[in-house]
Amino acid sequence: MRGKRERLLELLVTTSYLETEAPSFHLSSGKQSKYYIDCKMALSHPEARRLIGEFAITKLHDQGFQAVGGLALGAYPIAIAISDALYHLDGREIRAFVVRKDPKTHGLQKFLEGDVTRGDRVLIVDDVITTGVSTLTAIEKSQEADLKIVQALVIVDRQEDNGRQNIESHGIAFDALFTLPELSQFYHEMHAHR
Predict the structure, then answer these.
(1) Distance CA 189, CA 32 (A)
(2) CA separation for the pair 9, 185 (Å, rounded)
(3) 113 domain residue, yes or no
(4) Against a cut of 0.85, is the pTM above it?
(5) d(CA 130, CA 119)
(6) I need a labelling partner for 85 at 20 to 30 A (CA). Which of 30, 36, 64, 194 fits?
């Protein structure tokens, strides 16, 4: 997995990562940062989605879940990648779902889209975590729908503003594929060889 992990790190850094000398990126938390991560760029590529799915499987604390999902928009391709990877690995039918920020104004006016049922054990995913607010929103809306959260898993933990701690304080196991320092180190190593 080491070679695949490094390839995924390379894809993330080359497609989804920006770094400046001074804080110049406005984050959803309201803070300014010198680091910007947009995993949707990497998730546009099938190779990145495949690697995310395969690497995510190695980070699962609890294999006994029926569905994987998270807050629209960023979580849905991650959920699909993990669902597909588990299906290709051993034929497991793990369903992907998405949590809306607001319910639809028509039809059944649901917060959750996808084939999930009360009592399902679910994995909550997200692309990047800073404070954990969007991940916690997905967790809370899933719990309101009587889903049982087994773990939260993100692509990148910025390791800022207690995101991990905020999730773990709700009794949810948490893990990340990468940390911001890992992306920054890889970015600098890449640029040192140019």
Answers:
(1) 24
(2) 11
(3) yes
(4) yes
(5) 29
(6) 36
CATH code of the domain containing 156: 3.40.50.2020
pLDDT, one tens digit per residue, over 153-178 is: 999 999 988 999 999 999 999 999 99
In a domain, 24, yes or no: no
Please tell me the predicted confidence (pLDDT) of residue 104: 64
- Cβ pair 149, 142 in contact under 8 A: yes
Longest CA pairwise span in the chain (Å):
55
Contacts of 155 (CB under 8 A, 6+ apart): 12, 39, 52, 78, 126, 127, 128, 176, 177, 178
- Quote the DSSP letter at residue 21: S
| DSSP of 93-155 | -PEEEEE-SS--SSTT--SEEES--TT-EEEEEEEEESSSHHHHHHHHHHHHTTPEEEEEEEE
Q: How far apart are CA 194 and CA 180, in angstroms?
A: 22
- CB within 8 Å of 62: residues ≥ 6 apart: 121, 150, 151, 173
Expressed as residue numbers, the domain containing 144 is 46-179
Task: Say if residues 69 and 122 touch (Cβ distance below 8 Å).
Answer: yes
What is the domain count for the chain?
1
Per the CB < 8 A criterion, the answer to whether 66 and 120 are in contact is yes
Closest CA to 58 of 32, 91, 89: 89
